Amino acid sequence: MELLLAAVIVAAVIFAGSNGFHDAALTVGNAVVGRAMRPGWALSLAVIFNFIGALLGEGIAIVVANQIVLFSGSADLILTSLIIAFVAATAWSLFTYYLALPVSSTHCLIGGLLGAGIVFGFSINAEHAMNNVVWPLLLSPILGFILAWVLTLVLSKVLASTPPKPLYRGARMVDSVLTASLSLVHGVQDAQKVAALVMVGILAVEATPHDGLSIVEISWPVRLLIAGALALGTGLSGWRVVQTLSVRMVRLDPLKSAVADGAASILMYTAALIMRVPVSLTFVLGSSILGTQYAGRKGHARARYFLPMFGVWVLTIPAAALLALVLGWIVKAAVGL
Q1: What are the TM regions of this chain, as residue ranges (predicted)?
Q2: Which of 68-82, 146-160, 173-187, 288-302 has the lowest average pLDDT?
């Protein structure tokens, strides 16, 4: 059992690292493309604020750990299902990174949890999962698009008489601050979910076999471990997905970069601190970037790049769930669980 728990922790650390590697450059991508910050400085800022954000808040973590899959029964089954969920989520995340497509680590993890929960016979709280997880994940990109569209339209008219040079200089200054803001909320959103599931594994070892597991708080050693893994992945972050979202898919100027980052920040903090529901920074930011392109005559959104993004947005949860189902069936057949 101790080996299974160790495997859960290792799988969680790898997933958190891959999350930072895949997603974190997105928090600084617009600022780098808009020349608000140099890549090295921007990534260093992202590492620091991702780590800080990963230590904050528990509301989202409690939702993910307690209100999707209802873990109970044998500790071996619970630990095995957690390992499979993390493996499936990591595999899909790395596959989409290879394709240079943005993906939501939250979608990956939710899909992995649902698939593993089904194959090992845990109860799925469908109502809570839909209301508190699936609907926020699906609707938040639509809201990101609308908010960015409105902000771009309003600011373009209000600032129409401002000369481009001072306008862009001010936009770059604002975007530098927003880069730190996005990195902080990325840590709040993404790390706590992983840490909560590690706590599920720890409680499974400590609880009696038929207890229903409910996470109340996350221990500081677990917080620090996952925060460190997320920060390390952020520091090693690649730029393939940034090239797709901020360069190939659209044509951004400093003002539109700042508007997209601002719209994404507003929605991410609202979800994390007020509504306490998980949302995807990747798709909120991607849709916000698209929203800036359709608010005027100078948008250059390229369908051959954003249509695959929508495809991944729709497919990730079922794809990760299917992968977890297949892995779970293989493990059950091999081990006889």
Answers
A1: 41-65, 77-98, 104-126, 133-155, 220-242, 262-285, 305-331
A2: 288-302
